[in-house]
Amino acid sequence: MDSAACLHRIKQHFKTSYLLNDEKIETMVPVFAAILRSHMARLTELAADGNLEQIGKASHAVKGALLNMGLADLAETAHLIELRCKNGGHAADYRSMISQLHTTVIRLSEGW
Questions:
Q1: What is the pLDDT of residue 58?
Q2: How far is 20 from 111, CA to CA, in rounded Å?
Q3: How far apart are CA 24 and CA 44, in angstroms?
Q4: Alpha carbon of residue 12 to chain centroid
Q5: Which stretch of DSSP H or E encloses residue 10?
Q6: CATH T-level topology, domain 3-109
Q7: In the chain, where are the structural domains located?
């Protein structure tokens, strides 16, 4: 999916789920995008530290931000990271998933 298609999907989600008008949607998209990028930056930072508990909590926050924007497919990746952290394992196992999710979020949100 490209950035424009993703933005359209988010706007439709805001319109149908939150019953926002176009003007309010235009105001909210940058706010939600900034929150998502902030959560994603935190998750990426924690991946370098390797603390599974903190990575799990941060991936939960990313999942919530993505779901709030109607991006359930990306939220599923964050959920998978969260579950694997809760079930134990090594942080190195998640770094690749986190890196890919971060890259996708940044690429998609460039035009928002």
A1: 97
A2: 20
A3: 30
A4: 17
A5: helix 3-17
A6: Four Helix Bundle (Hemerythrin (Met), subunit A) (1.20.120)
A7: 3-109
Taking the C-alpha atoms of residue 55 and residue 26, their distance in angstroms, rounded to an integer, is 31
Residues of the chain under the 70 pLDDT cut: 90-92
Q: Give the distance, in angstroms, between the CA of residue 96 and the centroid of all CA atoms in the same chain.
A: 15
pLDDT, tens digit (0-9, with 9 covering 90-100), for 59-89: 999 999 999 999 999 999 999 999 989 887 7
pTM exceeding the 0.90 threshold for the entire prediction: yes
- Residue 98 is predicted with a pLDDT of 95
> Measured between alpha carbons, how far is 67 from 13 in angstroms, rounded to an integer?
10
Look-up of token digits 């991006």: 71
CA 59 to each of CA 4, 23, 37, 55, 91: distance values in angstroms, whole numbers, following the listed order: 25, 31, 12, 6, 13
